[in-house]
Write a structure and sequence with these properties.
The chain has 105 residues and is an alpha+beta fold. It contains two helices and seven strands; from the N terminus they run βαββββββα. The chain has one domain. A three-stranded antiparallel beta sheet has the order 2-3-6, with no helix packed on it. A hairpin with a 4-residue loop joins strand 4 and strand 5. The longest helix is centred in the C-terminal third of the chain and has 12 residues.
């Protein structure tokens, strides 16, 4: 997935600074390590590329690694092998349909 919003609300900057040693970067690709449900309050993402120390969250009444909001990311779309082959076949077509090409082989 790719980060589409790494902005920090100035009103929450101090809190974010205390909770996260490492922050995300816009337009960088990340891999989901784990999805935290956070007792149904708000889901969050842990990332392979970012590891922060666990903190105590009063709202959850436990220690856990701070997670990133889902809305900060977008899923990446990669072409499947079949789509790539179909696209390649379109590019390989030579000549004009209905017009016979001379055989030079």
């Amino acid at each position: 997935m790719i980060c589409i919003d790494a902005r920090i609300d100035p009103a929450k900057a101090e809190e974010i600074k205390q909770d996260f040693e490492i922050w995300i970067n816009k337009d960088k690709e990340y891999t989901i390590r784990e999805i935290l449900e956070n007792d149904g309050i708000v889901p969050g993402l842990l990332l392979d590329e970012v590891h922060n120390f666990p903190k105590y969250f009063k709202l959850l009444n436990r220690f856990q690694e701070p997670a990133f909001a889902l809305w900060r990311f977008r899923k990446l779309s990669y072409a499947t092998s079949q789509q790539e082959e179909e696209h390649e076949a379109e590019l390989v077509e030579v000549g004009t349909p209905g017009v016979e090409q001379p055989n030079n082989f």
